[in-house]
Amino acid sequence: MTMRPGQHRLADDAAKQTARLKVGFVLSRSFTLSAFALFVDTLRLASDEQDRSGRVLADWQVIGSTRHLITSSCGVQVAPTSDFVDPSRFDYIVVVGGLLTVENPVDQQTITFLKQADAKKVPLIGVCTGSFILAAAGLMKRHESCVSWLHYKEFRERFPDLSVRSDRLFNLDRQRGSCAGGSSAADMAALLVRKYISRDAERNALEVLQIEKARAPADIQPRRPLYDDYDDTRVKAAMITMEQFVDGSMPIEKLAAMVGLSRRQLERIFIDKTGMSPAKAYNRVRMERAKSILAQSKAPLIEIALDVGFENASQFTRTFKRTFGQTPSQHRAASRAH
Fold this sequence. Notes:
- The protein is an alpha/beta fold.
- 46% of the residues lie in helices and 12% in strands.
- A hairpin with a 5-residue loop joins strand 3 and strand 4 (77-78).
- The longest helix is centred in the last third of the chain and has 19 residues, at 278-296.
- It starts with a helix and ends with a helix.
- It holds the Pfam family DJ-1_PfpI.
């Protein structure tokens, strides 16, 4: 029997009333389209069978202070589907960030809405740089933010009193979530699908998206770092932290504790996996950073030396030459010649 258009609408409305997972999306100005698309498409594919896009087991809305089109960082525009409503209608409010160069990524009405959601204990999730928006609104206190390694330094500079990390894909607790963006948005959405709908729904969504399996929150962010040849996740996490504290201010004992090891255990693992001690690896990380700065900037040697934790240019020059076989000035000249 064929359903008339009015009956289709009634069926959709009934489905929405029984949806197990309801998500509201707040899109910032110049938001990252891929992060939003992967998150919402994971919900869409998990919500129904046979790729029919029905909102049977999940429902979602793009909510905003106006119905004006919101332009993403790539220029594609998205229209909000709902005004701001009672935030308790949603299981999660997801804030999708984008370019950090945008001075006011969301308006004051949006900030007020997010604070209302917090007051009503509705969990808030920052996707891509959405955690910057939540932090600026004072909504990431007592919560650890997970950001891309590309944005770690800027987050620390903007919010020095807040906890942040960039070695993992995403964090999700009962009241806050944050993720590095990109494909990790699908991983986070898959975790919500598994929690609220089922593992079968999660598997169906990921298969259609051609994703072999969802990654866990603690999985390491992919990038081209020094540890690329090492397969131990503790070594990778430790070396990412070294890069985050490239001025050499992270004690080895604290570094070991951050990856769940004692200093002696960390020493053994580094010798076994990398052939060098954590202290030597840390020094290499700092020298590699200095090498990159020398090639890409005109900063004076003393400035670079201070950035990577040396007290003076002569000490930095000796260490650099011992590491790479040439002085910083020789390296800079060679880089420019090429």
